[in-house]
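Action item from last meeting closed. Structure (191 res):
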């Protein structure tokens, strides 16, 4: 269990960066984060321009685009918290993890960043919108899929880690800190 205030803290940690060239104004809360990081540090395709170009509605209003960004950040945070907390076998339903979330927000930032990067690339792959100008997000499906899954050779060795692997690693690191394994001693009876 966690409070909306804890979710809001995570939502405000990372921003989308500059909105150069957009025909709508993006709220400052979406451009800058309290940590100083931006989502494009998790993947270069996660820019405001690419997201604007893949929104279903052409010439989306300023209000609607800002709401789209807010919802995207909210969904990424909720998905991250479910992956790190709720899906861990040590998670307790009746315990409030809000203070831990706020205290360890820098650790959870990695999970949120990679989660949103995956969401953005999936948005680029699945959009039905056609644009007149060529843009980075118009990469082929195979290239975007490779960005998500990485590259393995014919023997199954990883040659390039995809974002999905980076996300799994970030979740694992977060879970190890938030739910440390207590040492157990396995000993046979000696009498």
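Sequence:
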């Amino acid at each position: 269990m966690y409070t909306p205030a804890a979710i809001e803290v995570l939502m405000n940690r990372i921003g989308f960066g500059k909105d150069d060239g957009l025909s709508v104004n993006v709220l400052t809360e979406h451009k800058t984060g309290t940590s100083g990081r931006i989502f494009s540090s998790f993947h270069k395709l996660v820019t405001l321009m690419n997201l604007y170009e893949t929104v279903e509605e052409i010439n989306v209003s300023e209000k609607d685009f800002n709401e789209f960004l807010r919802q995207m950040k909210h969904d990424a945070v909720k998905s991250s918290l479910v992956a790190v907390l709720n899906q861990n076998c040590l998670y307790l339903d009746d315990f409030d993890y809000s203070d831990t979330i706020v205290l360890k927000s820098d650790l959870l930032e990695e999970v949120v960043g990679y989660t949103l990067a995956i969401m953005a690339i999936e948005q680029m792959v699945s959009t039905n919108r056609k644009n007149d100008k060529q843009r980075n997000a118009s990469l082929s499906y195979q290239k975007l899929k490779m960005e998500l899954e990485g590259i393995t050779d014919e023997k199954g060795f990883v040659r390039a880690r995809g974002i999905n692997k980076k996300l799994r690693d970030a979740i694992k690191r977060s879970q190890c800190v938030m739910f440390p394994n207590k040492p157990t001693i396995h000993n046979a009876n000696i009498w």
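Note appended to the action item: Confidence is low (pLDDT under 50) at residues 132-137.
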